[in-house]
Specification:
CATH class of one domain: Alpha Beta
Helix content: 40-55%
Order of helices and strands: EHEHEHHEHEHHEEEEEHEEHHHEEHH
Structural class: alpha/beta
Largest sheet: 5 strands, parallel
Number of helices: 13
CATH architecture of one domain: 3-Layer(aba) Sandwich
Strand content: 15-25%
Strand order of the largest sheet: 3-2-1-4-5
Distance between the termini: 68 Å
CATH topology of one domain: Rossmann fold
Length: about 400
């Protein structure tokens, strides 16, 4: 059990982290510093400051990290087209290393000897927070109250809250229907009404997107411009990373794009069912693959695709700051130097379909692929030798089988 005199707490202002704050004060006897990150979750952060002040906190850090989040974490990950288990765009996973990074930095700045988080002992986030923290400061102490305290139920938490005069919203006195995590890239919902993977998720679970059935009957067209593998403009208008993703989120929201109902394998060993909404990220993923289709050499593209599952696992498991992820990132970033141009997409009732792409760095050649007169750009007779050489081993194998 970690002991600490001064602790930096990842604080949302919600009931759970408010209980943790008071528990650190009363049970650990620690001075608490709070850190609240604005990652585009869409909530007003003023109440978090007021609640921390009400609970006697002197050092309160509330930071707008949206641009850093998208520029230094989301965009590098999207250069790899990372999908965990072939579907999940890693919206929760990619936020944790940035939060951990700031926790460690604030601890150093404020002279704290520990950090604390509100992740439970059953989930992935405890691993992500702590692996990132240890990678950045090997001597940091980490306090994980859900693995330490004696509370056994929601009732125990509510009793502690009332005993310590922690405001309990009335809608929290019963069991919450599901839990939600959100940032600028996505929202995720899991637990309670979603625990039976056979039951369709209720409509009220979805918060970032309209139902595809209710989306407009007329399609929306959008053009995304890329430079160095990153999106830099929408419909000809240059935008900062966070502003651009916000715009894509809005386009995706109104067209019902980016919903995912997934049963995934957690790093800690269990399966869980989650509902994810990644409207802007889904559009961006399709667009990035499209611009790569024009500008990446075949073998470079195939090598990237073969390494993608490993990269996605590293992000999902919490190894963002590990040397193997950094090595893969260097490879990916090298591949993106000529990935530039524009992609046009059609957004319609839950789908984001690529309908056009162009690039000054294109490897696509009309002269080579045309069915019309190619004027000597490609001699079709050359294919005969190519096929015979590639078929040699197959013919050898077939001959052996025929004679055995």
């Amino acid at each position: 059990m970690a002991k600490a005199k001064k602790v930096v707490l990842a604080y949302s202002g919600g009931l759970d982290t408010s209980i943790i704050l008071k528990w650190l004060q009363t049970e650990k006897g620690a001075e608490v510093v709070t850190f609240t990150a604005d990652l585009g979750q869409g909530e007003e952060l003023g109440p978090a400051r007021r609640k921390a002040e009400m609970m006697g906190i002197k050092e309160i850090h509330i930071e707008d990290l949206r641009e850093e989040f998208v520029r230094d974490f989301v965009f590098p990950m999207f250069r790899m087209n990372a999908l965990y288990e072939g579907q999940y765009l890693l919206g929760t996973s990619i936020a944790r290393p940035l939060i951990a990074k700031r926790l460690v930095e604030i601890a150093e700045e404020s002279g704290a000897d520990a950090i604390a988080h509100g992740a439970t002992g059953k989930g992935n986030d405890q691993v992500r927070f702590e692996l990132a923290a240890y990678a950045l400061n090997p001597d940091i102490k980490v306090i994980a109250p859900w693995r330490e305290w004696s509370f056994k139920s929601r009732t125990d938490l509510l009793d502690f809250a009332e005993k310590n005069q922690i405001p309990v919203p009335k809608d929290k006195r019963g069991e919450a229907p599901f839990s939600v995590d959100a940032n600028l890239l996505h929202s995720s919902s899991e637990g309670k009404v979603l625990e039976d993977p056979w039951e369709e998720a209720p409509a009220y679970v979805f918060q970032r997107t309209v139902s595809p059935e209710d989306a407009p009957d007329k399609p929306t067209y959008v053009e995304i411009e890329f430079k160095g593998g990153d999106p830099v403009a929408i419909d000809g208008k240059a935008m900062s990373p966070a502003t651009l993703l916000t715009k894509l989120n809005e386009l995706g929201r109104i067209n019902g794009i980016g919903r995912l109902d997934l049963v995934e394998n957690r790093f800690v060993g269990m399966k869980s069912r989650g509902i994810y909404e990644t409207p802007g990220g889904t559009i961006l993923y399709q667009a990035h693959r499209a611009i790569e289709s024009l500008t990446l050499d075949r073998e470079a593209a195939h090598l990237k695709d073969s390494l993608m599952p490993r990269y996605a696992e590293l992000v999902y498991y919490g190894f963002w700051f590990a040397p193997e992820r950094l090595m893969l990132q260097a490879l990916v970033d090298r591949s993106q130097e000529k990935v530039e141009g524009s992609v046009r997409l059609k957004l319609y009732k839950g789908s984001a379909t690529v309908v056009g792409r162009k690039s000054p760095m294109s490897l696509y050649s009309n002269a080579l692929v045309t069915f019309e007169d190619d004027r000597g750009a490609y001699d079709q007779k050359d294919a005969e030798g190519f096929i015979r050489l590639n078929g040699l081993r197959l013919r050898t194998l077939a001959a052996r089988e025929r004679n055995s």
